[in-house]
Amino acid sequence: MNPAPELTPRSYYRLPWSLTDNGISWIEVTDACNLACEGCYRPHKVSHKSLQQISDDLDVFKRERKSDCMSIAGGYPLMHPQIVDILKMINDRGWKAILNTNGLAMTPELLKQLKKAGVAGFTFHIDTTQVRKDSRATKEGEHNALRMKFAEMVAAEGGMACSFNQTVSWDTLDQVKETFTWARKHPNIVNTIVYILFRSPRLTGDFDFYANGKKISMTEAYENSKWGGDKLLYAKDIVAKLKEVDPNFEPSAYLSGTVDPNSTKWLLAGRIASTKRCYGYVGANFMKSVQVGSQMLRGKYLSYSPPSLLSAGRTSTALFSLVDPKMRKIAKKYLWNLVKRPHEVLEKTHLQTFTVIQPLDMMPDGRMNMCDACPDMTVHNGKMYWSCRLEEIKEHGCFFNAVPRKSCGVNVDPCMKQDPVTTPDEQHVQ
Q: Are 160 and 115 in contact (CB under 8 A)?
């Protein structure tokens, strides 16, 4: 297999999100879960946060971080017995409530109840790392029928965003084409697909790890998953696979890393399409205009737009063609299609987005390249931390330091504090 071409972040819009001003915040309301997915970084304990604890966490977010939406996670948040009260609490404090779910407990009746409580959208996590009672799929494409079930359920109720997460490893890389192909057929009910790249300590390289100056075993700290292959996956690999399906696929926005500013830790692409055809991918100027415009008009960066806005593809195309050259190409293609197929004038066009998340990467000198301005920061004991490394804080009170076993020209003292970006006392927003 030929190596995937390098990405060009300098041609993308760098999302202006920061630790204190971010489109998304992330609250974990329970450790309980009804699944045990391969490679999950959160141990499953039957432990629900009280409403007071959740209220305190929300106070921290309100004080430290300005956000458009609040992602509700866990564990499995629908296992929390007071999830309806939590949704109402989040809405009362001015956030859109986005519920992360595997869908196992979802029914049309529950969906109605959640909508009444104020949920703005759902992110369904469905992939082959899960052993599910509602699907026997062994490949991602076999899960598409289940994904369709939930997309249609949300669409039938109306007014709520619908997204899907999929964990991807080197072993399942080729299967992203199956979910991508499926999603492209349904831009009217599938708003976003998120590909989350699998990370495991056994794949990070030859390092020793220390906490508070003491050597620790990473296999004890994190589950030594046998899933995921024997090679790390990067955002460029996902993009290369998606281009095999659609050669025109092109990202337009990104978040960089805390150590490497050229890394594409969060990578976004958006397309204007009907259920019949795709008119093209939006450019960096479109992404910039949306984020800057939202900040100017609402005082918040935008995240998780409602379906009513996403389905206004023609209006968006006409408006943003003034500032985005790629939008002008989309407008020309759309108008030319109407000349050839005037009966499609009644066909709605939609903005459909695709996201690739590349979590922690190890640098040769042991520094850990995290997602800069991480949208999935959560609260623990009154402070904000990267959610994917929260177990280090819970168990050791600090983040791990990594020391290369082989010399890389850098002398590292394991007892030293890590790079300021990942120092435990400086992880939270002041």
A: yes
Contact 129, 165 (CB under 8 A): no
The neighbouring-strand residues paired with 98 are: 71, 121
What's the gap between Cα 356 and its chain centre?
7
Contact 278, 272 (CB under 8 A): yes
Q: φ and ψ at 404, to 5 degrees?
A: -60, 135
**Structure tokens, 126:** 């469905």
CA dihedral angle for residue 29, residue 35, residue 38, residue 40, rounded to 10 degrees: 10
- Cα 263 to Cα 32, 62, 288, 420, distances in angstroms: 33, 29, 19, 19
From CA 317, how far away is CA 331, in angstroms rounded?
6
What 209-217 contacts at long range (C-beta under 8 Å, 24+ apart), as own/partner pairs, is: 209/400, 209/401, 209/402, 209/403, 210/400, 210/401, 210/402, 210/403, 210/414, 210/415, 211/392, 211/396, 211/398, 211/400, 211/401, 212/396, 212/397, 212/398, 213/414, 213/415, 215/414, 216/396, 216/400
Of the candidates 172, 141, 167, 178, the one whose C-alpha atom is nearest the C-alpha of residue 38 is 167
DSSP H helices, 374-427, are 390-396
Q: pLDDT grade, residue 238 (50/70/90)?
A: very high
The torsion angle over the Cα atoms of residues 174, 226, 6 and 264, rounded to 10 degrees, is: 110
Does the pTM exceed 0.70?
Answer: yes
Residues 391, 41: contact at Cβ < 8 Å?
Answer: yes
User: Do the Cβ atoms of 96 and 25 come closer than 8 Å?
Assistant: no
pLDDT of residue 47: 85
- Give the residue among 302, 331, 300 at the shortest CA–CA distance from 315: 331
What DSSP string describes 332-358? HHHHHHHHH-GGGGGS--EEEEEEEE-
Q: Which of 412, 422, 316 is nearest to 377 (CA)?
A: 422
Which residues pair with residue 273 across a beta bridge?
Answer: 278, 350
Q: Residue 24 is encoded by which pair of tokens? A: 């998304």
CA distance 140 to 146: 10
pLDDT digits over 83-129, tens only? Answer: 999 999 999 999 999 999 999 999 999 999 999 999 999 999 999 98
